[in-house]
Amino acid sequence: MSSSPPPTDVPISSLAGRLLPASEASLPLDDALVAGGAAVTERLRTFGGVPFAVDRHLARLAQSANGAFIDLPGPLGELADAIVAVVRHNFALCEPGEELSVSLFVSAGSPIGSPHHRGSIAGVTTTVLPAGLLAAEYRDGVRLAVPATRQIPAACLDPHIKTRSRLHWRIAARQAAAIDPGAKPLLLHLDGTVAETDTGNVLSVRGKTIRTPPAAGVLEGVTQAVTRELALDLGFDWREEPLTPDDLCAGDEALIASTTPTLWPAVRIDGRPVGAGVPGPAYRALTAAWERLVGVASVAESSSQ
User: Fold this and answer.
1) Do 214 and 265 meet the contact criterion of CB atoms below 8 Å apart?
2) Residues 240-295 pLDDT 10s
3) Model-level pTM?
4) Which of 160, 225, 243, 286 could bridge 247 with an S-S bond, Cβ 3.0-4.6 Å?
5) Which pairs count as long-range contacts for 180-183, CB under 8 Å and 24+ apart, including other chains?
6) 181: part of which helix (H) or strand (E)?
7) Residue 289: CA count within 13 A, CB half-sphere
């Protein structure tokens, strides 16, 4: 980490171990991330200005880097220090009620022969999560639509590698919006079973049982893992098994576990209601458990419920 003090009045980022104004952070055009999407990534968020589950996210980043044959540029502890430094600085610039989304990546670097040749490079940056940003989704739920784009098969790309290449999810999001404006994409495997959304894991609730697609075919979410721990503490049973969109609609509730919102209630799929078509008691119970865990009542801005 650079010893020179960062500016005090503008957001900063960390790039290659240096703290610098976010507006000055850049990569050369032949960097592997820019030229080919060859990078692994993580996204976490703050609660009350404190980065949540940093160790879990860094462990998954290391797993992704190993699977993608990308060397980490240094110890994970250096990335943890960079996260803390960037968040401390940028959160001080936030307005009351705002939080931060924290993005980190490790690029494979620039190729041999490039004037910018170097090995892998890590970066940390943040964006502001405005107060009230997701209030409508928390209150009313989100809608899902099944796009034509399917989940990339595990035989083609290991789903446990969290990569910067998001083109298929971008396409799926546009296709879902064409089906139902404002809906989020629900990606299926080639066999028609549920995989994940473009932002998180899918949970189906029926009574006191929560079911989720098998981990072998999806990215294992940090938010999903924490939700599982909270659900077990609340007396829910947790199962991994294949699910179809019909199974989701036939359940009492469906939830999306994702870093930024934490939990979203999914209330319609392709225009069909999930259960009663409104956020339900499991969502409220799990949200309350999240709020107790992180000590911030705005996890789902539940005062509006």
Assistant:
1) no
2) 999 999 999 999 999 999 999 999 999 999 999 999 999 999 999 999 999 999 99
3) 0.92
4) 243
5) 180/143, 180/145, 180/268, 180/270, 180/271, 182/143, 183/142, 183/143, 183/144, 183/145, 183/268
6) none
7) 19
